[in-house]
Amino acid sequence: MEAGYELVVEVPSAEDYRRLRVVSGLSPKSAEAAAAGLPRTLFAVVIKTGGQVVGMGRVVGDGGLFFQVVDIAVEPQHQGRGLGKAIVGRLVEHLRATAPVSAYVSLIADGDAHRLYEQFGFKPTAPASIGMAFVVR
Predict the structure, then answer these.
(1) pLDDT per residue over 88-134, tens digit each?
(2) d(CA 45, CA 10)
(3) 0.90 cut: is pTM over it?
C-alpha cells in the first residue's frame, strides 16, 4: 500500500459504505439495508487518506462455521496502489487468527478480482459447486 494511506479496523459509516459500493461499480444498497446490516459486521477495515474513507472490506457470517468476505471496494481514483490487496490481506489475517478450524470462508469474485483473491488462498469452487444468489426487490 502506498504512503499516505491508513488502514483502520472499523466498520464504514452507512454513507461511506453506500457511496463506495456505487463508485467502485458494485450494486447500490438501500439506506435501510445498510442500517440493518452494517452493525452485524463481524470484522471490517477501511482505508483512509486525508481523513476520507476511500476503500473498505468486511467479513460477515455466523462467527464459527461460515464466513463471507464482502464489500471489497476502492474508489477508482485510488485503485492500482495496493489498497485492495491491503484490505483483503487484513481480512484474511483476521480470519486465520480467529476463525475456528474447519470454518468455511467464501466470497464472490467479480470480473478479474479472482486474481487478487487467489493470492490469499481462495480457489474457484466450480465445477464442484456454483455460487447462486437472488436479490430481494
Answers:
(1) 999 999 999 999 999 999 999 988 888 999 999 999 988 889 888 88
(2) 5
(3) yes
Cα separations in angstroms, 99 against 39, 95, 102:
19, 5, 8
**Strand pairing report for 43-49 and 66-74:** unpaired
Instruction: Please give the grid coordinates belonging to residue 80.
Output: 492500482
> Which pLDDT does position 56 carry in this prediction?
98
User: What CATH class has 6-118?
Assistant: alpha beta
**Alpha-carbon span 83 to 74, nearest angstrom:** 7
Q: Where are the domains of the chain?
A: 6-118
Q: How far apart are the C-alpha atoms of 47 and 52, rounded to whole Å?
A: 8
Query: Phi-psi region for residue 61, left (φ > 0), alpha (ψ -120 to 50) or beta?
Result: left
